[in-house]
Amino acid sequence: MSENKLTGLSRKIIADTSIPFPQKVRIRQAETLERCSALQARAGCELVFGGLTALHAAGIDVPQGIDSDELVVVSTPATSRHRYHGTAPTCWSFPMPTTLIDGVRIVRPEIAWIMLARTEGLGYVTMLGDALLRRNRDMKYTTAERLRQSVSAFVQEVRGSQRAGAGTTIASATGSSGTNADADADDANNTATTRKKPRRKLPRGFDTCLRALDLVRDNTDSFAETRLRLLLMQCGLPCPQVNPRIEVPTGGAVDDASAGGYYSGRSTSCFYLDLAYGEHKLAIEYDGKQHEQRWESDIRRFNLLNNAGWTRLGATHDDLSLPAKQMEFVHGVAQRLEQLSGRKIDVHKPVSLRQLTIHLRRWGDA
Known about the structure:
Domain DUF559: 272-316
Order of helices and strands: HHEHEEEEHHHHHHHEEHEEEEHHEHHH
Pfam families: DUF559
Region (Disordered): 165-200
InterPro entries: DUF559
Protein name: DUF559 domain-containing protein
Number of domains: 3
């Protein structure tokens, strides 16, 4: 199949709401690996693919807002820079562990994530981080804790084991403020006889990765869920639970195949809620186009939740995209949470994600 046909196929797949989401990601993965193999055959040598290409090849979801058909070919200062039609060559002078998938060598996804922080903002870097931590076992690459460990290991390797030391943490290696500029301040304390070479700088945008680590959460299902969670937090609400599993009583068996996210037993049904304040039985979910296709089973699901004492609030595309709708939805959530908790919730206009990370570092999720 030609490269043009392959890229055209992707656009049709993305637009087709009848194809299950995990299947779309797998189709895109197979397509990407085929295109990489074809390019490598033309080049006559092994290539290393990074950035979005590495994520697609590893079967990791990518937000449409930054998606691209260009294949990202990575070179290092020690290798020649490959330029081919339809590719985006990039140079990387930092540690670059790779992995081989079906004969295609890609940068490991956690490093591809760090690479993308050079050009993408905190919102997209957070969404990509969540994509590495999916609930679906077939789409899950790592956990939040292991991602933090990978970033710490990257810092140590960049700075050198003698400088960073075995006990180096992300915060100590990059400065307590999380910025690269302050990370080298302790070099000034070295005497002339013990002075060592200045620490090597971390990649551009690395602070964005550190801030994203404060925002990512394990077991996400979609980018809409990520955006919804961040919106609530940016407006002053506490961070909700992500995809908690709950059990509710039921009068009979429920077909889990049509329900999309729960299964049943004789007396109880188990659900995964997009977001929830479990202590107060408040569920918050994104009602996307997939809900239109399983409306009947969703109604049954909503009724079971309601009978179990749960309150469910659904968010639409407009609730996430239009500023006026955003505030209307957030105020609705806050009002219901106040009623259920008996505690005042102070809602404000969304702060920037950077401001949110400052708040989280000072006060935590509460």
